[in-house]
């Protein structure tokens, strides 16, 4: 059973109360029109907060499965509760509203992998931000959420890695395959050190990856231009 506050928290005007009542009434009609069998593959958005949508329905959805919103937006099912499913939204959550329908895609999110991804920039779903088409017919795909190899199965650190910055290379020993944290305040050049290290590996036959979180497209294109 779900309860809704029909009275607005910001204003107690009659117009706000009527608007909230009509919105809740429309939402309940949508739930009533969907039978129990259809709720296994279809859901309705209850609320949206900080890029995460709480959805009623989707009873048979799997963790990590790609779902589609009625506003042509994609998401990934993460938090599977008894009656509610938490869906992480890929994109601007402002276009998703309460009462929007969500449908299953019946496939776990996968991204393309292989040699053809070199010198390319992709988003979290594997879509290229530089080239229009780069996926080949024999393209290999991996699940977006896989278990990393254990410490024992990994190759030992036995080869040095040069960053190209003399002050770092002379004082800090860095090995190939070693985990190294770059800690500092904002706007102190942490990202610049990592980008310069990648640029320094040119013609070294060393594959490098740069993973950016919560960055604007301007940052992507400025990094590519380097």
Question: Topology of this structure?
Answer:
Layout: H1 14-33, E1 42-49, E2 52-57, E3 65-69, E4 74-80, E5 84-90, E6 101-108, E7 110-113, E8 140-143, H2 166-171, H3 190-200, H4 217-225
Structural class: alpha+beta
Low-confidence stretches: 1-14
Order of helices and strands: HEEEEEEEEHHH
- Provide the gyration radius in Å: 24 Å
Highest CATH level, the class of the domain at 34-108: Mainly Beta
What is the overall shape?
elongated
Helix content: 10-25%
Strand residue content: 15-25%
**End-to-end separation:** 56 Å
Query: Can you tell me the CATH topology of the domain at 34-108?
Result: Elongation Factor Tu (Ef-tu), domain 3
Let me know the number of strands.
8
CATH architecture of the domain at 34-108: Beta Barrel
Tell me what the structure shows.
This protein is α+β, with helices and mostly antiparallel strands and 226 residues long. Among the domains are: 34-108, Elongation Factor Tu (Ef-tu), domain 3, CATH 2.40.30; 157-226, no CATH class. It contains four helices and eight strands; from the N terminus they run αββββββββααα. It has helices at residues 14-33, 166-171, 190-200, 217-225; strands spanning 42-49, 52-57, 65-69, 74-80, 84-90, 101-108, 110-113, 140-143. The chain has a six-stranded antiparallel β-barrel with strand order 1-2-5-4-3-6. A two-stranded antiparallel ribbon has the order 7-8. The longest helix is centred in the N-terminal third of the chain and has 20 residues, at 14-33. The chain is elongated.
